[in-house]
Amino acid sequence: MPNMKTLGEFIVEKQNDFPHASGDLSSLLGSIKLAAKIVNREINKAGLVDITGAVGSENVQGEEQQKLDLYANDKFKAAMEARDQVCGVASEEEDEAVTFNKDLNRNAKYVILMDPLDGSSNIDVNVSVGTIFSIYRRVSPIGTTPTQEDFLQPGNQQVAAGYVIYGSSTMLVYTTGNGIHGFTYDPSLGVFCLSHESMQIPEDGQIYSINEGNYIRFPQGVKKYIKFCQEDVPADNRPYTSRYIGSLVSDFHRNLLKGGIYMYPSTAMYPNGKLRLLYECNPMAFLMEQAGGIASDGKNRILDIIPTELHQRVPFFVGSTNMVKQVESFIEEYPEQY
Ligand code: P6P
């Protein structure tokens, strides 16, 4: 790799672009990097050790928790608590936000929200899964116990966001608001190396990602868009290709590189959509906008939605600008629920 640069070097280099940066965010990203390596090690041997399958409990979403869900949750929480930059963590796997009450953490200025292992039901069938994280500056006073308001901030207040994709290779992709950059893990060296600097998504794409098994209960506008994707119009590169892995991070990452749209609209089972605003949609929306794409709930910019509860769900449309705008126009033209 000609200009091999590690994630750590890149973070410090970019931090120097901000002369007033204290280095706390850089150190926080370093702790995420460490936790990602630990989780990656367990995922890569999941078939060999007793860490796959369900634990027999459910999370607040009512979803069966996988052993690796809880393992990843514990490792990322521990990594955050061990550093003095984070005063609290909200997680898909935790009913309430976890506040760290050691002085070390109470004086910290960031909170982090995360889905420690998204798509975990795919682990047992060896399909890629991911970690998603979102970082905010706290709004409560330094030195106090963080409050709900620290975690219920709109996505446009994020200071950083990213994901780890545990796939054919393991990558960490993040933004601090100055572009989106991808790093590929080299297990022989134990480092993440810069492999995709300043990623940009094509404004048009030919890939649409949606669980068409839910078609019958999709909103009318979404049904119209799916048929639009399937029309035989070679001059417009249609029909598009349908690709749906069932793992948000994997579908998102492929569409980011190739162009495309990921959609999780409201369905019969999830009338408000399935994906969670705070630790799935907001971080992915921040990343996508940094890559030149857009993200909405079908009508409104995801990053401008004012959260009301920790685990709230929203319909999610994210990807190439022209594709998201196209489905939004169908939703506007055909407002019927389904
Ligand atoms: P469905 C995984 O549970 C997840 O949150 C996303 O990673 C994925 O895109 C979606 O749900 C899959 O949901 O209902 O199509 O199985």
List its salient traits.
about 350 residues; alpha+beta; Fructose-1,6-Bisphosphatase, Chain A, domain 1; D-Maltodextrin-Binding Protein, domain 2; 2 domains; eight-stranded mixed sheet; five-stranded mixed sheet; about 30% helix; about 20% strand; binds 6-O-phosphono-alpha-D-fructofuranose
Summarize the structure in words:
- There is one protein chain.
- This protein is of the alpha+beta class.
- Helix content is 30%, strand content 22%.
- It is built from 9 helices and 15 strands.
- An 8-stranded mixed beta sheet has the order 4-3-5-6-7-8-9-10, with helices on both faces. The chain has a 5-stranded mixed beta sheet with strand order 12-11-13-15-14, sandwiched between helices.
- A hairpin with a 4-residue loop joins β9 and β10.
- α1 packs antiparallel against α2, α2 runs antiparallel to α3 and α6 packs across α9.
- The longest helix has 20 residues.
- The structure holds 6-O-phosphono-alpha-D-fructofuranose.
- InterPro entries: FBPase_C_dom (IPR044015), FBPase_class-1 (IPR000146), FBPase_N (IPR033391), FBPtase (IPR028343), Fructose_bisphosphatase_AS (IPR020548).
- Its EC number is 3.1.3.11.
Q: Gap between N and C termini, in Å?
A: 51 Å
* Broad shape: globular
State the low-pLDDT regions, or none.
Answer: none
Indicate the proportion of strand residues.
15-25%
List the ligand species.
6-O-phosphono-alpha-D-fructofuranose
Number of separate helices: 9
Describe the main β-sheet briefly: 8 strands, mixed
CATH architectural designation of the largest domain: 2-Layer Sandwich
The CATH homologous superfamily of the largest domain: Fructose-1,6-Bisphosphatase, subunit A, domain 1
